[in-house]
Fold this sequence. Notes:
The protein is elongated, with a radius of gyration of 23 Å. The protein contains six helices and two strands; from the N terminus they run H-H-H-H-H-E-E-H. A two-stranded antiparallel sheet has the order 1-2. The chain starts with a helix and ends with a helix. By secondary structure, the protein is mainly alpha-helical.
Amino acid sequence: xxxxxxxxxxxxxxxxxxxxxxxxxxxxxxxxxxxxxxxxxxxxxxxxxxxxxxxxxxxxxxxxxxxxxxxxxxxxxxxxxxxxxxxxxxxxxxxxxxxxxxxxxxxxxxxxxxxxxxxxxxxxxxxxxxxxxxxxxxxxxxxxxxxxxxxxxxxxxxxxxxxxxxxxxxxxxxxxxxxxxx
Length: 182
């Protein structure tokens, strides 16, 4: 039995131990730290006036914000819309003040959706810039509000009632989330 054969079992055990140590260090510990983060902000303490007819209480509004964020993620909106004003290239002139870490201390900001491209505008300061009706029209047919838009439409979040196109609950939740940003 040569030297390598004698120690191969030791190397196997050491390799497996390092693998599991890596999994714990890179997967379990960050999740644990996020859950233990103190100073998290409440996502909503009251329902904005624009949404009181849709969501009678704070808990319903919070549920809508969570649902809107889930739709935002599932539709891949974060690929083209960032939620982080970077301290470069005069972004603060276009999108507002540079984003601060404290803005992301709530459950809707974890994991962060900073985005990798900026095909569409940054949404970190979107709250209140436009009306809910503008957002509904933009989601249904983006070129109706921004003629040069390359964003696809999301007509499946709308339905026809009495000859009018009205938003479904999913569209209302998504707009609630967009209006909450910033």
